[in-house]
Design brief:
The protein is of the alpha/beta class. The protein contains 22 helices and 38 strands. Strand 30 and strand 31 form a beta hairpin. The longest helix has 21 residues.
């Protein structure tokens, strides 16, 4: 534009040629004025400006109005802003509020706005808007008042890119008392009826009492009273899944210290893994019903066949993941079927469990068979038979009343006959009670009958009837005695001193100690004796005639001896699988002796140390040997054990083939509204699985469905992102096809119960210190420090075009005045407009003005 100055000389030249033909100073003045007007307009168009340094500041107060900054914290922030404004002086201020999004800039007053969305915190966008709003020519400053708990944006990155010092005033998050359920941590998938843990994280702004409830599918699992401390608190619950497609776990929180209800619950969804299909083969399928029913009750799909049915089916094992052979001899299966079982386990990764019986592990049928080659045990070299034994305690009343009708002598005769009845490997103890209780004979083997008979003969009568201490001592002694059956025969003729007989009888029953009672004479308290026998699983007999006492006692002893039957033993645990519990299991009554192979892992052993439960890996699969049975022969008492179904379900899960690839992991993460799903895959050889096809099938909380391709973002890693549109449960299906062309699917869920803004967290001081540091601001300044002088200045550029235009306008007004106004010699004037209407030149106009002046003055002369 400055190049336009070249027209000024041209204008001067043209204008001066016209001026030479006229006279007077007005044309010259007008010419000069117009030249200056043109010059000023050219300078104004050139954008000339004046630059000078200034220390005047523009301070933008950015105030957090999100829900985590409650009323107490809001008042603290407003007080800081008011105190800082007192020191403002000549500086300028602007106020900006933010929640999920920044509000509107206000240069007059800081007042809470109802238009702010408090269910989020986005300080990053607020800082960038504040920085952009500061005009040039001011020293920029931002004062950020927040708790630093952002739910959107990246504040640290925004502070670095704003290029404005940000002084940070930390505000207490949830200033006061507040609690919330921060997280419910569950496995994404699990098998039904297996123990699992649910870990609940509860956050509190201060110490408080609370009640935490865990609900599964709208049914209360457990309610627990807890003492919360400030910060995060972890509460662990133990539960399991039912046989359902999925289970919804909700952790609920109740506390008097709570002020916000929306954040008192969190949801987590656990999907139920598909359980293996089981083929159970038993020579007597009807006897396999308890085992099949136990597995079905735990969600397994069980098919029961006889060996004949198994042989009729060409591809018997097709579609099954586990084969259970219950007391099946290897001789009952042809070589082709045994080869198919070998291929099923060794090559295809199927599972095999062989349950005992004389057929399965008998030396003639088991040794050197194909079944023996697959199992972790082999036929024993020798098998030693074991005889069952009985431990009995005779509890005899020796109070003074037993002298009547020779009752004590008859009782001693009955005890002596019992000694003769018992086998040498049985055990017997004799306990006498009157006012006091004493052992006539400790529990010893019945082999030394002479010693036992001598001790019984020494029994004397004395004192009153006090039966309870005797029962208690008998219980404690038998509980520590190793025997297949334990029995008590109680004999009395009177009414005992008071005692908690029901409790001691219940403890005996729980320890599998039976109690039979015998009463002599009508004076005995039969009511108590009958109740003791009923609770402890024995019988009550009454003797009206003392001479019949020996026969009645011997009958009770014979009944006890007949119940011994086969020997019983409790499994001894060498090593246990997680979830495989046998601590409460009743005894088993038999098993087949075998020997473990060197690579076998023994889990349970019998009473003599023989393998009872062993397993090992056989090729791609797992084989298990259980040398007892699961039927009503040796495991009859196990079938009524509450842990029976859980035991076999856990063992089946350990042995069965899993149809899913093991070398993968799926992770679902969320940051604000953005969620990401990642799939990591490793090939069986340990290399990353690259180039597979994977996709995410998403069903959002509102019901909207979409399929999102999962792109490879790293070796073996595939990822997809989506926007969380609203609160609720988002269901995900991650599907992929491996190199062999087989397709797999895994389900996951992402539950969003409340806005992240309502998550109770402490003030994020680390982030706020970082913001102040990277931007060059101050952390936690005092109000007076906000406007404190420093060495910073700003270049204030003042554009001069307005001044040039104003000067040109004034000159134009002067020029118009010079052209339109003409002074006269008489001091009067005429309008320049009148002169402009005459066609003559300036000289003629002057002559006419003189003539008109003479004409006007003539009448005055005549007057």
């Amino acid at each position: 534009m400055l190049l336009a100055l070249v027209i000024v000389p041209a204008l001067m030249y043209v204008s001066r040629r016209g001026i030479r033909k006229t006279a007077g100073w007005q044309p010259t003045s007008s010419l000069i004025g117009r030249l200056f007007i043109v010059l000023l307009l050219i300078l104004a168009s050139a954008g000339l400006s004046y630059r000078a340094a200034t220390s005047q500041r523009m301070v933008v107060f950015v105030v957090d109005r999100s829900a985590s900054v409650n009323d107490n914290a809001q008042r603290t922030a407003e007080a800081f802003v008011r105190d800082a404004a007192i020191h403002r002086s000549h500086h300028r201020t602007t106020y900006l509020e933010f929640g999920a999004e920044p509000g509107l800039l206000d240069s007059t007053v800081l007042a809470p706005s109802t238009k702010i969305d408090s269910q989020g915190s986005n300080p990053a966008d607020a800082v960038l808007l504040a920085a952009a709003s500061i005009p040039p020519g001011f020293v920029p400053d931002i004062v950020l008042l927040t708790d630093g708990n952002q739910t959107r944006g990246e504040l640290a990155r925004a502070a670095l890119s704003a290029h404005v010092p940000i002084s940070v005033v930390p505000i207490n998050a949830f200033d006061g008392s507040e609690v919330c359920v921060a997280e419910v941590n569950t496995p994404p998938a699990a098998q039904p009826f297996q123990p699992m843990r649910v870990n609940v994280t509860v956050a509190a702004s201060q110490d408080a009492d609370a009640t935490v409830e865990l609900v599964r599918d709208n049914e209360l699992v457990e309610s627990r009273s807890v003492q919360l401390t400030r910060g995060e608190n972890w509460i662990s619950f133990r539960t399991s899944l039912p046989a359902a497609d999925r289970s919804v776990f909700v952790a609920k929180l109740k506390s008097a210290a709570d002020t916000i209800l929306e954040n008192n619950a969190r949801t987590s969804i656990v999907f139920t893994d598909a359980l293996p299909r089981v083929l159970l083969v038993d020579s007597e399928p009807a006897l396999a019903a308890p085992l099949a029913g136990a597995l079905r009750s735990r969600g397994y799909d069980v098919a029961v066949q006889s060996p004949a049915e198994m042989l009729k089916t060409p591809n018997t094992l097709l579609g099954f993941d586990l084969l259970i052979l219950s007391d099946i001899s290897a001789n009952e299966l042809p070589a082709a079927k045994l080869d198919a079982i070998h291929n099923f386990v060794h090559d295809q990764g199927g599972g095999l469990i062989v349950l005992g019986g004389d057929k399965a592990f008998g030396r003639e049928t088991f040794q050197a068979s194909a079944i023996e080659r697959m199992l972790p045990v082999e036929a024993a070299e020798t098998v030693v038979a074991r005889t069952a034994n009985l431990a009995m305690v005779l509890v005899i009343d020796n109070s003074a009343s037993m002298l009547e009708e020779r009752r004590l002598e008859l009782a001693k005769q009955a005890a002596s006959r019992v000694v003769g009845l018992l086998s040498p490997h049985d055990k017997l103890g004799v306990l006498a009670f009157g006012s006091d209780t004493q052992w006539i004979s400790d529990i010893v083997p019945a082999a030394d009958k002479t010693e036992l008979l001598g001790r019984i003969a020494s029994l004397q009568a004395a004192g009153q009837t006090n039966m309870y201490p005797a029962l208690q001592k008998a219980y404690l002694a038998l509980e520590q005695t190793d025997a297949d059956r334990r029995y008590v025969i109680l004999l009395t003729d009177g009414v005992s001193s008071p005692g908690d007989f029901d409790a001691v009888a219940a403890r005996m029953a729980a320890a599998n100690i039976k109690v039979s009672t015998v009463s002599i004479s009508q004076g005995a308290d039969q009511t108590i004796l009958q109740e003791i026998a009923r609770i402890a699983g024995g019988q009550h007999r009454h003797c009206d005639k003392p001479e019949d006492l020996a026969n009645i006692v011997v009958e009770a002893a014979e009944t006890a001896a007949a119940e011994v039957g086969t020997p019983e033993f409790r499994p001894l645990v060498l090593r246990s699988l997680p979830g495989l519990q046998v601590a409460t299991a009743p005894p088993l009554s038999g098993f087949v002796a075998t020997s473990p192979k060197p690579q076998a892992e023994l889990l349970l052993v019998g009473g003599e140390g023989d393998p009872l439960l062993a397993w090992w890996r056989y090729g791609a699969g797992v084989t298990v040997a259980f040398t007892s049975d699961a039927k009503n022969r040796w495991a009859q008492r196990w079938q009524t054990w509450p842990g029976y179904a859980d035991f076999w379900a856990r063992l089946a899960r350990h042995a069965a083939r899993t149809a899913e690839p093991r070398d993968y992991s799926i992770r679902v993460t969320r940051n604000g509204r953005r969620a990401e799903v990642t799939l990591d895959m490793i090939q069986p050889d340990g290399e990353f699985a690259n180039g597979i096809e994977a996709s995410l099938q998403l069903t959002q909380a509102g019901g909207r469905q979409q399929e999102i391709p999962m792109l490879q973002v790293a070796p073996g890693r595939y990822a997809a992102t989506f926007e969380v549109a609203q609160l609720g449960v988002n269901e995900l299906i991650v599907a992929w096809t491996d190199a062999s062309g087989e397709r797999y699917e895994q389900r996951r869920a992402l539950a969003v119960d409340y806005s992240d803004e309502l998550l109770v967290r402490p003030t994020n001081e680390e982030l706020l210190r970082t913001v102040a540091s990277v931007s060059g601001g101050k952390y936690n300044p005092q109000p007076a420090e906000v406007f404190a002088p420093d060495q910073r200045t700003a270049d204030r550029v003042t554009p001069l075009w307005s001044y040039f235009v104003l000067a040109a306008l004034l000159l134009w007004v002067v020029d118009v005045g010079l052209r339109r106004l003409r002074l006269t010699a008489l001091g009067s004037y005429r309008s320049a407009g009148d002169l402009s209407r005459e066609p003559m030149g300036v000289a003629n106009r002057d002559s006419r003005l003189a003539s008109k002046s003479t004409e006007y003055s003539a009448p005055s002369t005549r007057s």
